[in-house]
Design brief:
The complex is a heterodimer of chains A (118) and B (110). By secondary structure, chain A is mainly beta. Chain A has one helix and eleven strands; from the N terminus they run βββββββββαββ. Chain B is built from no helices and eleven strands. The chains are: A mainly beta (118), B mainly beta (110).
Chain lengths: 118, 110
């Protein structure tokens, strides 16, 4: 089945620094990768949709200059949280599916990155 | 109105019990529906897709009611390992984005 590898699993950083999170599709080509954020006891909220070779599409209220998304290849998408602040502390998860499979088999999620900004 | 709404629970049931819960969705054009399971501090994992005729996977049964726009999940013979948060997920047919419910928490006690 489809596997999405995400790392780091957790990261603690100082306020004002930047953090990069990587998601790789290991056994399929992910033309589209979705990035989510989940706060405690809340559901996953879509932040942006990342398309290989083009600019990401951000959801309303998500700052594109703060959450930089790069999808340079069919197997790698990255999310960089720039100038992180404590309120950015959250669980960040990516997901993707093999082309045409998502509507039938759902999407595979990365293992998530727990970001703590101190 | 939220795109997907779920009863947050928690449902606290003894081992062996049957537990069932629903979720409702707002987009009548939605075509794909899923139940995901999420354990504490972990990523969601696909439990099962939900088909129009209803489907069963072992102890889990999912139903779809398009007229009333709700999906249900029933767990029979609950196990301790079924304790988790169950996420109702609906796929937007136009942009393939997933909409998540906030999750229903199930706790199975010995």
């Amino acid at each position: 089945g489809a596997v999405v590898s995400q790392h780091p699993s957790w990261v603690i950083c100082k306020s004002g620094t930047s953090v990069k999170i990587e998601c790789r599709s290991l056994d399929f080509q992910a033309t589209t990768m979705f990035w989510y954020r989940q706060f405690p006891k809340q559901s996953l909220m879509l932040m942006a949709t990342s398309n290989e070779g083009s600019k990401a599409t951000y959801e309303q209220g998500v700052e594109k200059d703060k959450f930089l998304i790069n999808h340079a290849s069919l197997t790698l998408s990255t999310l960089t949280v720039t100038s992180a602040h404590p309120e950015d502390s959250s669980f960040y998860i990516c997901s993707a599916s093999a082309p045409g499979q998502g509507t039938v088999y759902g999407y595979t999620f990365g293992s998530g990155t727990r970001l703590t900004v101190v | 109105r939220k795109e997907v709404e779920q009863d947050p629970g928690p449902f606290n049931v003894p081992e062996g019990a049957t537990v069932a819960f629903n979720c409702t969705y707002s987009n009548s054009a939605s075509q794909s529906f899923f139940w995901y399971r999420q354990d504490c501090r972990k990523e969601p994992k696909l439990l099962m897709s939900v088909y129009s005729s209803g489907n069963e996977d072992g102890r889990f049964t999912a139903q779809l009611n398009r007229a009333s726009q709700y999906i249900s999940l029933l767990i029979r013979d609950s196990k301790l390992s079924d304790s988790a948060t169950y996420l109702c997920v609906v796929n937007n047919p136009t942009d393939y984005k997933l909409s998540f419910g906030a999750g229903t928490t199930v706790t199975v006690r010995a």
